[in-house]
From TrEMBL:
Positions of the LRRCT domain: 185-239
Domain LRRNT residue range list: 25-58
Any single GO CC term annotated in Swiss-Prot or TrEMBL for this entry: plasma membrane
Membrane topology listed for this record: Single-pass membrane protein
Keywords, sorted A to Z: Cell membrane, Disulfide bond, Ion channel, Ion transport, Leucine-rich repeat, Membrane, Repeat, Signal, Transmembrane, Transmembrane helix, Transport
Naturally occurring in which organism (per UniProt): Kryptolebias marmoratus
Protein name: Leucine rich repeat containing 38b
């Protein structure tokens, strides 16, 4: 029996060292269910925890009171693939903060206090597949180039925010996009919404429920209208385009006005000059008659 104990001893030592290392590297207020996961959810944190293992792959920080992410926070965590920051008090993400995580696949920033998504927020996180930005009640602006470089992004959640409009370019720059959620926003049915409406109709298969349940308010009286009741003709006044004939008429009219203005100026100048010469001649005749 002694030989068995001697044989098992190295294994027991190895296992004990693994568990000891895991507990040693885990932040005091968090749990680490496996060597590459740090779970700090619901800990009442008001800032990011310290002493997070550098080889962390899944970082769970949901349901806390974290107001900001330091711009250099992710520089050292090159292995991070999953970051959950939902239900915190984030109001702003400094551009470039998230671009250093080249392997990031999943990012949840939902249920925060974000007000805008500016250009460069995500850098060129080419590995990002799923991005959650829903349930930010103050999020009213998404830059047209906010998602530029996210070539692998398949799922984008922007539901239940404060968006009244969204540039189509923000979505058309996502070549891998398969699912997008935009319901629950206070869209306004004006000309700024016309292009987005057309995109939604053409890409309704990317919406979990199509345009069902989506509404926009009329700019005149604020009345809410279901998108299913609208068509491209509803925005025909916004789609007025100039034909080649119209452009030629405008150009010809501009040239004609310019020519008329030049001729009028020349005529007035000539008239003034002749009047001055006539005045001088008349004055000379009067002087001669007096002599």
């Amino acid at each position: 029996m002694l030989p068995c104990v001697c044989w098992l001893q190295p294994i027991l030592v190895l296992l004990s060292s693994v568990f000891w290392t895991r507990g040693e590297n885990c932040p005091a207020t968090c749990q680490c269910p496996d060597p590459h996961t740090v779970d700090c959810s619901g800990r009442g944190l008001t800032r990011l925890p310290e002493e997070i293992p550098l080889d962390v792959r899944r970082l769970l920080l949901a349901d806390n009171w974290i107001p900001r992410i330091p711009s250099d926070f992710l520089v050292l965590y090159s292995d991070l693939v999953y970051l959950d920051l939902r239900n915190n008090t984030l109001s702003y993400i400094e551009p470039g903060t998230l671009s250093t995580s080249s392997r990031l696949v999943f990012l949840d920033l939902g249920s925060n206090n974000l007000t805008e998504i500016p250009k460069g927020t995500f850098g060129e996180s080419r590995s990002l597949i799923k991005l959650r930005l829903g349930n930010n009640p103050y999020l009213s602006m998404v830059n047209e180039d906010a998602f530029l470089g996210l070539t692998s992004l398949r799922e984008l959640e922007l539901e239940r925010n404060a968006l009244s409009t969204l540039k189509v370019g923000a979505l058309s720059q996502l070549p891998s996009l398969r699912v997008v959620r935009l319901e629950g926003n206070p869209w306004v049915c004006n000309c700024n919404f016309a292009n987005l409406f057309e995109w939604l109709i053409e890409n309704s298969h990317k919406l979990p429920n199509g345009v069902e349940g989506m509404e926009c308010s009329l700019p005149m009286d604020g009345r809410r209208v279901a998108l299913t009741q609208l068509s491209k003709d509803s925005f025909r006044e916004c789609q007025a385009t100039l034909t080649l004939t119209d452009l030629l008429i405008i150009i010809f009219s501009g040239i004609s006005v310019s020519v008329v203005a030049i001729m009028t100026s020349f005529f007035l100048a000539s008239t003034v000059h002749c009047f001055q010469r006539w005045s001088k001649g008349a004055k000379g005749d009067e002087e001669d008659s007096e002599e």
